[in-house]
Amino acid sequence: TAKAINALGKADIILYDALVNPILLKYASPNVKKIFVGKRKGVHSLKQEQINNLIVDLAFTYGHVVRLKGGDPFVFGRGYEEIEYAQSFNIETEVIPGISSSVGVPALAGIPVTHRGLSESFWVITGTTRTGELSRDIKLASQSTATVVILIGVHKLHEIVEVYKSSGKANLPVALIQNGTLPNEQIALGTIFTIEEIAKEKHIGSPAVIVAGEVVKLHPEFVEQEVIEKYLLN
Q1: How many CA atoms are closer than 13 Å to the CA of 211, on its beta-carbon side?
Q2: Is 157:212 a contact under the CB 8 Å cutoff?
Q3: pLDDT-above-70 percentage for the chain
Q4: Range scoring the smallest mean pLDDT among 16-20, 30-34, 182-186, 221-225
Q5: What's the pLDDT tens digit per position in 107-145?
Q6: Contact of 147 with 122, CB cutoff 8 Å
């Protein structure tokens, strides 16, 4: 957002994540130090506790720290954890909301999360809990008519599919959008019944957003995908 760009221009030091578009760093002053603290599944440059400590140390050393995250810091971004830690040291903080991948990525792929006559609401769920297990909320969500957006869930795809099948939703449309908004974006379209095979064929991996719901039918290539599904079913 414009407010975030303004903050980057005033930063004394920037800590940025793995999902941050590098173009954003160009809005910082040329001599500002930039530190990568990104985390991906299985690969962490720093643990969360180390990042928390770094924010505090750098705030006292440099002054104005900008903690740059991809998406929105309060949607599975651990933003509040970091703010709470900084505030425990009486460091003044400010949140600048971003655009969550849960709505931004489907939108740019041509999939609305709500649409009159198809979806009256949407759920945003983490696919993986703190303990590494599948979120129990997915079972509840699978029983509703809402659009369900699952983040951090590609490696749990089989478990998600089984939950939806047990809810009688084998024919529900699904989209997997990998590297959303980037030049190497990939999308897999199918149904609960076929999406695992299609994702495998397209080599879909993390990071990816999973969208389950009737709104996926609105993607311009979904009709074409139905032909693939019939082939798989035969």
Answers
A1: 32
A2: no
A3: 93
A4: 221-225
A5: 999 999 999 999 999 999 999 998 989 999 999 999 999
A6: yes
Reading phi first (left if > 0) and then psi (alpha if -120 to 50, else beta), residue 132 is in: left
Q: How confident is the model at residue 225 (pLDDT cuts 50, 70, 90)?
A: low
Judge if pTM exceeds 0.85: yes
Residue 21, pLDDT > 90, answer no
Cβ neighbours of 126 (radius 10 Å):
17
Contacts 24+ apart (CB under 8 A), 174-177: 174/210, 174/211, 174/212, 174/216, 175/106, 175/109, 175/111, 175/210, 175/211, 175/216, 175/219, 176/204, 176/208, 176/209, 176/210, 176/211, 177/105, 177/106, 177/109, 177/208, 177/209, 177/211
